[in-house]
Description:
It comes from Streptomyces gobitricini. The chain crosses the membrane at residues 25-44. The protein is mostly helical. The protein has one domain. The protein is 89% helix and 0% strand. It has helices at 2-20, 25-56. The longest helix is centred in the last third of the chain and has 32 residues, at 25-56. The mean pLDDT is 84.
Amino acid sequence: MTFFLILVIAAIVLGIIGAVAEGLFYLLIIGIVVFAAALVYLVLHLRRSGRQRRTLR
C-alpha cells in the first residue's frame, strides 16, 4: 500500500510541475501515466488480497 501512495504522490507532483512550468507538458503526461499505473497496481493488489482471504476460510 505504501508503494501505491508513493506512486500517487509522484503523479501529483509531476502533474503540477507539468501544468505550471512552461515547456514541461511532457511531465504532465508522465504524471497521468504514473497515476494510471498506480490504479492498475491497486486493483491487482486488491484482487490478490481478496483471493487469499477466500482460501483461508
